[in-house]
Amino acid sequence: MQQPMSHWRGLLAARLALGLVLLYLLIPLAATLVFGLSGGHGWGDLSALSAVFGDPDFWLTLLTSLGLAAGTTLLVVLLLTPTVYQVRLRLPQGRFLLEALALLPFAVPPIVLGTGLLQEYNGAAASSPLVALLSLGLVPLLSNVFPLLDIPLLLVCAYVIVALPFAYRAIDNSLRAVDVRGLTEAAASLGAGWWQTLLQVILPNIWPGVLTAALLTFSTVMGELTLASLFNTYTFPIYLNMTGQNDPHRAALLAVLSFLLTLFCVLGMVPGSRLQAGAGRAALPGQIEGAGLR
Amino acid sequence: MLVRARDEREVQTQTSVASREIGGQPQRRVWRLAGLIAWSVLIPFLLFCVLFELLPVIITIQGSLTNGGTTGLSLASYQRLFAQASNLRAFQNSIALSLVTALIGGLVGAVAAYGLASLRQGWLRNLLVSFCSIAANFAGVPLAFAFIATLGVTGFVTVALRNWLHLDLYTLGFSIYQFWGLVLVYVYFQLPLMILVTLPALSGLRPEWREAAVNLGASPASYWWRVALPILFPSLVAGTMLLFANAFGAFATAYALAQGNINLVPILIDFLVNGNVTVDFGLGDALAVGMMVVLLTVVALYTTMLRRANRWLGR
Q1: Which of A110, A190, A249, B151 is 20 to 30 A distant from B36 in Cα terms?
Q2: Count of A–B CB contacts within 8 Å?
Q3: Among A82, A90, A285, whose Cβ lies nearest the Cβ of B238?
Q4: Domains of chain A: total
Q5: A282 CB contacts (<8 Å, ≥6 apart)?
Q6: Is B255–A289 a contact, with Cβ atoms under 8 angstroms apart?
Q7: Which residue in B132, B134, B150 is closest to A31 by CB distance?
Q8: CATH at residue A182
């Protein structure tokens, strides 16, 4: 069919806009790479690179962040997968509750969450009878336990909440694409229990969604500064911030390294999301957004 | 409801032997027990959310009404919030920054998403979508440093413009460390995010609708104006709201860029509760509640629009 001219003009404008956007996204990356590698003494000066890798704090904080990210990812998957599965399977009336809990972090940015958590576990609120009652006595207990631990467990718990909206979306979408009820009934008729069904039947069917959730969580934690700074934990983004203020060339190199880290996380998601796209269900706006922390 | 009835039937058949002997009463009790067991799987997650999601919010609200726990019930922290012009200025800056970047990101991102959706080559489309999700996730401190390396005083593009075009951005009044500089940086993560959230909505536009419109004599312009845009409108507004919330809560990017020298609400809260000298949870809580009020409005609009979008494009 002959398309009218104005249609092509519109299409051309849209592709032009796309080209400009891509240019806008690529230029800072390229400039950062060049800037980082040019060091203080012209192009090809790799002293900044060796300075980065020779810094013990670089490895220390990278390790801390990797540990935090791994812990958070594990906790997110462990908490969410059984819950979302059970709601899909038996408790459709619990869906609204889950949706609300997964939406709330949009209205409670990390800086607000951190302010609340600081007061909950370090401040006067820890000994308030109302808080103790509402938390079944767990807040006073935990506020005594957290300082004794070697690992920043409270930070991990906060990260779980930060990652909740994206991780929930990813897992819920993938569960929607499979026949949870049919699979469960088939498994039950073969004698499988609830956990066995979840681990051996459901999980193999939804692993792309779980992987996406895990990688989104992982890359979120690797880049998170706000809460780590509030809780005084020396993580990779804090190191990045401190180093970058003194040496912009080193900062540029570290930014490139962070970009590569994000790249690997997203590349890990691609096969998963393609499988899900193959399931034929178009995600709706707001269901596939990135999780990066601004 | 259907599922509940089905569960009930299952449990009934399981317990029918027992209940025939004792009577009708235990049946219901057993069903209720099964319901409780079904809910019990959710306990760890729900308890976790109470401890680390709901209680912090409740405590923040409580703190804002008791001046950080130092007084009884009072509006002192809100009075302090409104008494100082810099606090209101911070809200003004934060809202302006979020609005400007959400509108730029929303408009340009939506058009670019259409350009992306119109690409014929599947591999290219996939490549660009992956690149967009990387760029949308590339934020915070590294992004701030990337922009300092690009458009800072000695940044690559700044120097290139100065050497080649004799154009000095910084003598022209531009600074990456101020409002419009921050707009440029925020737009970097807003654009790809808008593309990602708009693509599914665009793919929900059925070709039949265009064909029907063309058959009825519509020009491409009137197809867009009368058919496609009204259908897409709720999705586009929802996407823009998401961008707004995204920018409004952003802390790390602005902090790494300006090191606290720009007056935004998250930076102000951090200064109050994370200060080295004194902490003021009362005012911090009041500001935090202010943020939540703004964001709840945005999120409410977002969900309303999303529901409306689902009517045409959804499940």
Answers
A1: A190
A2: 362
A3: A285
A4: 1
A5: B200, B203, B204, B313
A6: no
A7: B150
A8: 1.10.3720.10
Q: What DSSP designation does A127 have?
A: G
pLDDT category, A6, cuts 50, 70, 90? low
What does the block give as tokens for A256?
């490139």
The helix or strand, by DSSP H or E, that contains position B38, with its residue range, turns out to be: helix B25-40
Query: Contacts for A182-187 with beta carbons within 8 Å, 24 or more apart?
Result: A184/A89
Residue A126 inside a domain? The answer is: no
Within a domain: A240: yes
Secondary structure of residue B66 in the 3-state scheme: coil
For A249, the domain range is: 51-101+162-278
Q: Nearest 5 degrees, angle CA A104-CA A176-CA A287?
A: 40
Residues of chain A contacting residue B251, judged by C-beta atoms under 8 Å apart: 109-111, 225-226, 294
The architecture CATH gives domain B78-313: Orthogonal Bundle (1.10)
How do residues A192-217 score in pLDDT, each as one tens digit?
888 888 888 899 888 888 988 898 89
Q: B149 and chain A: CB distance < 8 Å anywhere?
A: yes
Residues 6 or more apart whose Cβ sits within 8 Å of residue B314: A284, B204
Look up the ipTM and state it: 0.84
Return the residue matching tokens 């729900």.
B46
- The reported pTM is 0.85
Ordered by start, the domain boundaries in chain B are 2-41, 78-313
Q: Nearest Cβ partner of A90 from B38, B135, B197?
A: B38
Query: Is residue A214 assigned to a domain?
Result: yes
Is A118 a domain residue?
A: no
Collect all residues of chain A within an 8 Å Cβ-Cβ radius of residue B187: 24
Alpha-carbon distances, residue A102 vs A134, A237, A287, B146 (angstroms): 20, 25, 11, 31
